[in-house]
Amino acid sequence: MYDVMKGLLTITLSAACIVLAASCTGNSGKLKSFTPGEIWPDNNGVHINAHGGGILKVGKTYYWYGEHKTEGTAGNVAHVGIHCYSSRDLYNWKDEGIALAVTHDPESDIREGMVIERPKVIFNEKTGKYVMWFHLERDPQYIDGRTGIAVADAPQGPFTYIRCTRATPKSWPDNVTDFHKGPVAEGLQDVTNLLPDQDPDVVNTLGRDFEQGQHSRDMTLFVDVDGKAYHICSSESNTTLHINELTDDYLDFTGRYIRIFPGRRLEAPAIFIHDGRYYMMMSGCTGWAPNPGHSASAPSIWGPWEEMGNPCVGEGKETTFDSQSTFFITLDDGRVIYMGDRWRPENAIDGRYVWLPVEFNEDGSYSLRWQDSWSL
Ligand code: DGJ
What we know:
Oligomer: single chain
Shape: globular
Radius of gyration: 20 Å
Bound molecules: (2R,3S,4R,5S)-2-(hydroxymethyl)piperidine-3,4,5-triol
């Protein structure tokens, strides 16, 4: 099925690729620039299929992991798995195949048709394993709110699925208050999103999920300079972000975590460190539709996190240039690239990528500015 689709796509996208090849490759036929929002052909001339993705650098090679989408609205859920590509220059990507495949076992958590989103891969120096975490919903109503974990011996996989879990069951965050340890509002349901007039610190979503574990929806992973890894996710019915510390093997939560931006209803977290300061970007919660971005920074992963407003400047800033944050790539020389998704929910496979350079400002904030085409 995947091969057939790949073949069809090669034919249907070839015209677009020829146009692209004329505009952004040199005589070598290789891409030499980023063209945000355009078709991005891989080494086979097929539009890259790695949405909600993240990048891992291994030696001199970058690996891009993302959701493999299929055609139509049905393509918004997982029918294939997590796709992996490799590159030495970040412009030209080789198809490395499916790193984590969905199954056809009706008992499996990662069976075809589940929501498998925003995969991120990190390498564990101690165990020598590549560790993937992703958002998993085994329920079309999005009330599962889980994170899945898989491991591999090689960056391109194949990854073996281990398990899924809610975040940090039976643990209180460092910044818990007595209120959270008290009663939960009567009738408070375990829902995808709270009603607009419900405040998590009035109805007590944290207390609601204490026993079974906290929601883990849109997520990312981050390895700090000391090798400690963190899982950052949208929690408490998409109202509050949580930063969770991972165990030394990166396969579990230690139980230590903090809540950040309570009640701000942010998702799509992406994080980077620059000159010793931690920076984050998030979106609002409007499904597949774009909205204004949010930025924040902190002196430590544990905060205090301070919001710094919409980092986008110029035309298109109200929609994050028709994109939603997924990851930041930090180059060896310290430059940082924003990776965003331009979702196409009516034909998921046609989703585009918006990669833009991060500009640092004197006041300690960062900005994103639209560019039709740019290079490093
Ligand atoms: C917004 C999230 O950021 C996406 O990853 C996806 O889950 C959509 N919502 C689904 O509506």
